[in-house]
Sequence to fold (651 residues):
Amino acid sequence: MSFLAELIGATLRNATPLLYGTIGETYSERAGILNLGIEGTMYAGAFFGFAAAATTGSRSMGLLAAIVVGLAAGALMGLLTVTIGTNQHVAGIGTTLGLIGISEYFNRLVFGSGEGLRRIEPYPPWEPFGPDNLFSQYGLTYVGFLAIAPLAWWVLGRTHFGLNVRAVGENPEAADAAGINVARTRYAALMIGGALMAVGGAYFTLAALGSFTLDIIVGRGWVCIALVIFGRWRVWRGVAGALLFAAVYALQLRLRILSEFEAIPFELLLALPYLVVIAALVVSGRNVAYPGAYLKPYRRD
Amino acid sequence: MSNWGRRLRLGTGVVAITFLVTVPFLLLAGVNPFAAYAQFLFDPLTSRFGLLEVGVASIPLLFTGAAVALAFRAGYWNIGAEGQLLLGAVAAAGIGARMEGMAAPMALLLTIGGGALAGAVWALLPALLRVRFHIDEVVTTLLLNPVALLLVEGLLNGPWRDPVTRFPESPRIATGAEMPVIVSGSRLHLGFLLGLVIIVAAGFVLSRTRAGLELRAVGLSPEAARFAGINVARTLVVAALISGAIAGLGGAGEVTGIQYRLTGGLSAGFGYTGIVVATLGGLRMGGVALVALLLGDLTVGASSAGRALGIPSQAGDIVQAAVLLVTVAVVAVNRYGLRRRRPATVGAEP
Fold:
């Protein structure tokens, strides 16, 4: 396989979890809620997806468990920020800390202290054109790019529900006056978003790696938050941002094996994509217009 | 005083709800929740060693709690205390190892001063991006946390790896750069007093000085502060830098007082816990000190519960997150009810 084809293939693989996470966060934020619970939701999706697959022997059960965990995480954010109306930064950080704590707690309880010893047989890639070409990708990658992204774009931009989500995120008073149930719509956006984030996390354990480690997400949730801003709350621009991060990530993976880069510890190259995202924000994230009701709890008069 | 009565009622509610939401996790581990909480909260307080360890565990939280509270009071959402703490640790390990032959107080001062400076430097970029380009500091401070972690791992697996044992540990710092132990026969070091001094100083500056007043004004309403002639951008950058420096000191304290070198597990998420400390402390320095001690107690208690009852020590993390979320929820319900009353002004509510 040519260098370029390998690079594109690796880019699509690495972009997949970010695609799910970024679209999930886009839904939350378009409804007016900053969901900093994303890092923990991806982490819990990775762990509970893995744990369910390992204990039942079925990857589908793993995926289902991740979705349920993601829905629950979204509902928790809804309870805190919609029903109760707490500060969204604190609610999100607390949710992330709680979900990471719960995941690691059950990891010790179920698998003991030997971290990373358990493995499952991960999803094999789909290979419509045989092995070793850039179409050899995991099902979750195909579903993400060919089904979830276009569907998410269509629902948000072209359906009644999507219009409601945008309305409660821009101007909840007007939406309320127009008869839209603000709370229910925000819950729905948060829960859909949470499910997508958790599937993004489960991609690591169920497809890419087949095992769970404590540093499995390392800030990719935070990357998704940045990509949403980079994409200015549009689904496709967020996906483009995910591809950008993943391309730099794939590039540094290639650089590592070159002799010129032998002296550089690989962790420093690993940090490169995060810095590129910050640079991308400087280029494309300046003075952006946030959703009108961003960070504001809605309380009826 | 009805105010105290109200607080007591709220506090009781928080404790009861936190207990209820964490009970299922403890039951799933097959332990009696009451026994578990007795271990978490009271066991460390029953021995001299335990009490001193509570102090040790609270030291990094005093720093990160103060750092986060100060920034939040300015309306600057520094969620990057974790990265700033790690950079402080990196700088302290780097400087401290080169202090051989330097007289003791000077070596320590240079080492922790370097840590504070490194923390401030790590906090500078997000602050500049915020005031120059209106790029949300939440995102940039968060993104720099994994970068700092990767920097630590890169140094430990690369140039700083022990050449003999091949352990991922940096060279030991010079003895002159070590924080003195303040209670003999324990690990409680001078960093504890330094943390308290920082908290008292930050509290004084916030409540008694013009700079503190300006900082709080910016946090309450940047527009009003601007009208009042306050340089909002400068105030935010200064708040971010001081916040970063305090977090960096926290990292330097762990290196010079506990580990004596840079290690991979140096921070158990102290920067993120700092957000919990600051929020539960009501963004007040007295509250920060109190909550740092409480969470220090919980940390020591959770690890002793791990040994005594055989439950994962991460139970402490679950309790910590639960108490944070329950507290902000109870406070918000008490203030606004459940989505019923008028919207309150959105601002720097904790």
